[in-house]
Amino acid sequence: MKILVINAGSSSLKYQLFDMENETVLAKGLCERIGLDGRVKQSVPGRPDFEAERAMADHSDAIQAVTLLLTSPETGVIKSMDEISAVGHRVVHGGEMFNSSVLIDDSVIAAIEECVPLAPLHNPPNLVGIDACRQRLGDVPQVAVFDTAFHQTMPEKAFMYALPYEYYENFKIRRYGFHGTSHLYVSRKAAELLGRPIEKLKIITCHMGNGTSIAAVKNGKSVDTSMGFTPLEGVPMGTRSGSIDPAIIEFLSARCGMDIGEITTVMNRKSGVLGISGVSSDFRDLHAAADGGNRRAQLALDMFAYAIIKTIGGYAAAMGGCDALVFTAGIGENNARMRQWVAGDLGYMGLNLDSARNAVRGETFISTADSPGKIMVIPTDEELVIARDCAAIVGGNTR
Ligand code: ADP
Predict the structure, then answer these.
(1) How much distance in Å is there from the Cα of 147 to the middle of ligand 1?
(2) What's the pLDDT tens digit per position in 54-83?
(3) Given Cys at both, which of 104, 153, 262, 263 links 142, Cβ 3.0 to 4.6 Å?
(4) Distance CA 63, CA 81 (A)
(5) 196-382 belongs to which CATH class?
(6) Domains of the chain by residue range
(7) 18 pairs with which residues across the strands?
(8) Helix or strand or coil: residue 143?
């Protein structure tokens, strides 16, 4: 069974074609600058990467470009799009309506549209991607996989904000959480690597990339997570502030004459480690600057680590312990120094980091052999989760 996974952004569209017989990636690529000059890139295992300029007026043109890339004699890996059993779409916000992946029909599209006010930057391009596939790929079943779905198991006490209750009833203001497919994938993989049933484990997963979120996964279910109503809440990130005292917004508005929209943009795009350091949102640049004596770059790194340490402590308290701590995504998978700072002093909760093992790359245990709780690095694979959900929904290989 072949599954195409689509992740549509406002001017880009990423895709991966899976063969689910052995869960291998046949091809993956990116259409970017859609509506502008247009570029496509595709990589196929064992072949040189392909890159070309392709004018694409909209996402429908992009799907047409993907079709050509996947089927043309020059770049293709399949003969026809008819070989594809289903298309899986990453959809950022499913609100409270979706706690798992679903087959897309008109009512699902209407429900995703209803969630647009909750994710105005993300859900509209996701919908455009779905629409483009419906136009171009005929009757192939399409599945929506939501970033928020995994966190729908959070108890009320974790997802409610202490605002007047009617704001939740009328406007659905609550914590939703994001990166759900990633937290789900790495927590299940952690249980697999531990050789223990996930139903009996307390796991803390740290997805540390440009966007960073931490999740508490108890008995296989998300019981708390650091991102909230939007992906702005939580720990400081590349360019996002994470949680701040909300009263700062009114103060800033009065002091600097910015309106709320402008302040929100600052909190999303000019804050986080970029805002603190004034150097970069990229952790490689921050380490280089800090090593060269840049005090604010070091402060940004320290603030990032400190916020994560506090979150881990909080989640261990909430779950009554932690059997495994998992690092994933760009920083979690690659940045051994940050892992050392975050996990180097967690012996108090039974997590003992092994500094030598921490230097190893790839999927691995990085705790000492006798550590009661385990610390692990697990590369995330959100596309595989989407492909698996698709396969399960349309039948066939449900691994
Ligand atoms: P996104 O949220 O955009 O998917 P990623 O998961 O790709 O982000 O993470 C991007 C972050 O990962 C950047 O801050 C980058 O510096 C960091 N990163 C990637 N590779 C390395 C590396 N080898 N060493 C240190 N940091 C890295």
Answers:
(1) 19
(2) 999 999 999 999 999 999 999 999 999 999
(3) 104
(4) 11
(5) alpha beta
(6) 2-146, 196-382
(7) 3, 25
(8) strand
